[in-house]
Amino acid sequence: MAFMSLIVCPSIASAQKPDAPGVGSNMITNFKGKLVSFKRGILVVTTDEGTQMNVALPDDIASFVFVAEAKPAFLQRGMFVRFSGSFNQAGMAQSPIRKVEIFQPVAGKLNGHQREAFVPGIYPVNRPKAGEPPPQVADVKVVGNIMGMDASGVMGVMIGKQPLQVPLAPDVRLELRFNNMSLAEEGDSVSVAGFYQAGDETNVKASRITITTSRVYGEATEGNSKSTRKRTRSSRKKTDDADTGNGENPDTAP
């Protein structure tokens, strides 16, 4: 099957945005702090000013993300990845890929833009006009599963039933972007955007949460990279709870 025939051209759909928070008694807030705990869909965060905040997860789970750096040793067969690059019609990358994001599937309905981030496929950055022939080389976003990686730094990726060989740059940046709490730990940095009821500023409904850490997963100097990967595999069992807020993270729960 030709590479270009796999490119998905999503239909254009209009969506009406809900009323922005800040109307009436809702007050907009943005703050940064450190993670204290997570239980039953509520993050407890101590702000940089020392105030303890109770933060409810966003309704859109894609707006809740844990971000960390990873090394090639962390990669495993079957992991979900996404990246952008230029490919010809034969599916050959025109240059090594410089950034790869590692993610986990999310539950619930996804809109068109979100599908391009979570559903395996090849998505054009610039859609060709109707009637135009496919370009010889196209800039695309690729979402798929890791098949493996050889000693030369070529990563095999499966997109549905289509395999793809992807050369990685020697200094490729691997970034974990998990939409759950499976790897988060107490003390991680938290950035929150959301709103609260006037007079109740310590109880926040988030519209976006980003958790970051200085930990590097798969780094040889960790000394526990194997246990870290094992923990990642075992954490998949609690991913659904973390996605919906019905469970707790044993690393951060009180």
UniProtKB/TrEMBL annotation:
Q: Where is the composition biased (Basic residues)?
A: 227-236
Protein name per its UniProtKB record: DUF5666 domain-containing protein
Note down the stretches annotated as region Disordered: 215-254
The species this protein was found in? Rubripirellula amarantea
